[in-house]
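ligand=adenosine-5'-triphosphate
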Amino acid sequence: MTHPTSVINVSHAGKKFGAKSVLEDITLEVQPGETFGLLGPSGSGKTTLVKLLSGIDEASSGEIHVFGTLMPKLSMLNRIGYMAQSDALYTELSALENLQFFAAIYGLNGSRRRQRIAEVMELVALSDHLHKRVDQYSGGMKRRLSLAITLLHEPSLLILDEPTVGIDPLLRKSIWDELKILNTKGTTIVMTTHVMDEAEKCHRLGMIRDGQLLAVDTPEALIQNAGKNSIEEAFIYYGGGQS
Ligand SMILES: Nc1ncnc2c1ncn2[C@@H]1O[C@H](COP(=O)(O)OP(=O)(O)OP(=O)(O)O)[C@@H](O)[C@H]1O
């Protein structure tokens, strides 16, 4: 049954690239303030699904509504923060110039823009590197800058594709703490991850394999239903041979 207040409502969505079916009959709802994780083996369709949710790409069949609006819809960009798997940064520019560019796209100006840039760079512990050119950033720093850009316009839905790849455990924890604070304030978060301790922090998880959503539940219930002792074992069970 469709929940009227769902942030995300996916109804029988499929995606084909030519003759190749990459997602099949996905039905899913995400509620306000939820942290929802997508887990699945490499190539299972996680990135394809989050691209459909964020309106970067369009479903071949079925429907996706975000905040009640049929996707894709350009005007939804202001409400969604999407962080892709590979960083979309202008490497020959400084971090500040990158932030200013994206702030302009989101219509952030003047003191509000300055304030948000300072806040998001503080959040990802990059305040001291604001004026550095991005091609002098490490991989993890680029990832953090991408996250900062995603948070600039305070979106009510965050869609993060492997957000903490290349980020060391200490900083990963501080980013998670911040995501949890945003979450408590009402931001809904959808993320793909391969990191098991991150998956365990999600309220609910969707297990994807070969373009199909095999199970959606709390981490505890997924572990229990698979008859396993950890999310890692459950992941292998749902993502592999179910033995
Ligand atoms: N533009 C495209 N054209 C053709 N096939 C594509 C395209 N994009 C993705 N695919 C295919 O769709 C399948 C799912 O890819 P996707 O990137 O969604 O997987 P994933 O679960 O995110 O993988 P990973 O964890 O490795 O990032 C793969 O077989 C991939 O080759």
